């Protein structure tokens, strides 16, 4: 772990999802000034955990936080931008013992993940992508290998079923952006294993905010020149002709609607909002604001000239 954390090349990474980490001689997990360490949230009293998450301190705490996951072998964090959020899970599932296969069921871990995803998606304000990374200790032809014993394939069936979107899994609630292949930029084995018997996987995801199209400016209809708009509509539609059929009526109505919309769009001024503008601030409120400021200035002038206790000052205060 020390070699991984201290490697200058890993300083360019944003998140490390670690399983079965080693501990230091002080019986603690490795800490580093460039990384924030997140452990599983359940209070088990254990000093050593089988899954950790390191988040680079370049990522502000205002754009990420740890989320609760009620399982001792799962750590989870949420990273978000203005447009999207990413749920990251570091998962460890122990291998299946030969004699007692039921004792290593992954169902408690899957249930904890489902509950965490459901809670994170409750606000529904951002499209969400979900990444499950970990040491699952399962073998299946889906992720490689042609000569796998049938017993091992059967043991991986729960994991395969969980990863498929069905009506019984919280993975169903993720948005369409999760299935967008453009989000995944790179995915390959990491160049170094740092003496471990496992190979790390490097994944790069694009969660940068997308530029939103400029919205059309709102119109100030109370300042529109309606007389000129009427003249422009009359000019475009021309003199009325006799309408004798329903299709003829439809054509005239469509022409009238099109001419009216075009004239209103051309002859109605756009709003010019400032960063401090409020849609609820009406002209009537502006008049009241001006009157209030005038009364306040009169009271201040009376305080300076006559004093706060003078009858004119008291009257000005009551009017204010």
Automatic annotation (TrEMBL):
Annotated ranges, domain Endonuclease/exonuclease/phosphatase: 87-201
Alphabetized GO MF terms: catalytic activity
Alphabetized Pfam families for the sequence: Exo_endo_phos_2
Protein name: Probable transposable element
